[in-house]
Each structure stands twice: as structure tokens, then as C-alpha cells.
Amino acid sequence: MIKNLIELTKIRIAFLVLTTTIIGFYLGQQGIQSPELLLYTLLGTLLCSAGSSVLNNVIEVETDAKMNRTKDRVLPTKKMSLSTASFLGILFIGFGLAILFEKVNTLTSILAFCTVVSYLVLYTPLKKVSWINTSVGAIPGALPPLGGWTAATNSLDPGGWILFFILFFWQHPHFYSIAFIHKEDYARAGLKMLPVIDNGNKKTVLHIFLHALVLIPISTLPFFFGISGRIYLVGAYFLSNIYMLCCLPFILEQTERNAKLIFRTSLYYFVLLFFIILADVRF
């Protein structure tokens, strides 16, 4: 039961969500001035993320059953009933929102609610309708750092929105590379991912290039808005250029190997940027 629950809650996504939430909180307070507040923020956010992932599994059970990479998941293999999974998903989200509302602030709970709704009601069904689903899905994917910021400040300041846009643009090369690697699987399930419907890959290449390019100036904005210092400016500018350079092989030749390079680089980018932020605020 525990193993199935861990798989349903998509622990790797939860880790990404919590990490970006910490970044937002950390920059909002310029350190961690309220450990208890951070703890409640992370707990509420984790429950909302876990519940959303569980309900996503419920909604996409038929789709997952058609894909090689997902056909052995908990729900397609009937290791847990849909009713049990639905109950757990709703329960997690309900407790998560309650914690954020009671222990953090109303604004953060509203953002969490918007994240859940946009992920489950907009992004998930849109995957079968239009390739624009990646950009729509990037919205709930980019809200956690803004939620961390509002948890720390109880306000929607420019700093929080800058973090939102950094994560928004970072996600596109990351998820387009995944979609390219698994495009046959997505096609089999009838999902309208851009690499699936893009004959010749011209649109995929263009979107990867543009989002990686725009990320370079966007990533430096925390310095110009007084949120971060010179360590961050140099580090973020360097990392974003490396990210862009690692997209170039795929732009020139659309192969699985080059798509995997984008994917791996995106993960390193994210981890290294996190440590640069910590170092910058500390020193």
C-alpha cells in the first residue's frame, strides 16, 4: 500500500515542487526567518502536490494503460481501485489547502488552489486536445516558487513573479525534450504533444530555442530587482547560457541523444541554480 501510494504521488515531481517553494520562501525572507512557517508551507504544498498527482493518475488511467512507460503504474495494473485513489487525492488536497489557509496565509492557499485546478482541469485534459498543453501545464508548474514567496511575504511582489517566469521558461525545453524522447508512446496514447504532431520538428526546435533564449535575460532579473546579488547574477547568466548551448545540438539535429542532453542539462541547471541562490543570500 505504501509503495503504491509513493508511486501515485509522483515523489520526483513533489521534490521539484518543494525545492522551488523553498527558493521562493528563502528569497522572500532573504533567508529563513520563520522555520515554523516554512514547515507549514512545505507540508501544505506537499499534500496539494501529492493529491494532484494522485488525481492525475485517476484521470489518465486509460491513457497510461496505452503507454509503455506508464502501463505498469498502480492504477492501470489495478493495484489500487480508482475510488480509493480518488478519495486519497481529494483528502490530500483538502488537508493541504486547510493547512496553508490556517497556518500560512489566505493568499498562498488561493495560489495552491489555482495550481491544483489549472493542473487537473486545464492541463491534464488539454493533452488530448492541443499541443499548447505544455505551455498551459507550465503555469501550475511555475506557481510553487510564487507560493513560497507569498508564504514568506503575504504579498504578490515582482520578485515572486520573476521566479514564476524563470521556472515557466525553464520548463519548455525540459518537457519538450521528454516529449520528443517518448513521442511514439505519446502518439500511441493519442496525446497531442508538440513533437508528436510536428512533422519535421520545426515548431519543436523553434519553441526550445526561443524559451531557452528568453530564459537568459529573465534569469538575471532577480539581481536588477534587488532580490539577489552579484554571485547570483554571474551564476545565473552562466548557467542559462550553458542551457542554451546544450539545446543547440538538438536544434541542428533532432535525435534522441540530443534530446537527452537537453533533459540532463535542465536538471543540472535547476540544482545548480538552487545552490547559487543559497550562496548568494548567505554571502
Automatic annotation (TrEMBL):
Transmembrane parts of this sequence: 12-32, 38-59, 80-101, 107-124, 131-149, 161-183, 204-225, 231-252, 261-279
Principal subcellular localization: membrane
Pfam families tied to this protein: UbiA (PF01040)
Keywords: Heme biosynthesis, Membrane, Transferase, Transmembrane, Transmembrane helix
GO cellular component: membrane
Membrane topology of this protein: Multi-pass membrane protein
Keyword tRNA processing appears in the UniProt entry: no
Protein's cellular compartments: Membrane
GO biological process, one term: heme biosynthetic process
Keyword Hydrolase: no
Molecular-function GO term, any one: protoheme IX farnesyltransferase activity
NCBIfam families found in the cross-reference section: cyoE_ctaB
HAMAP family assigned: CyoE_CtaB
Protein name per UniProt: Heme O synthase
Originating species: marine metagenome
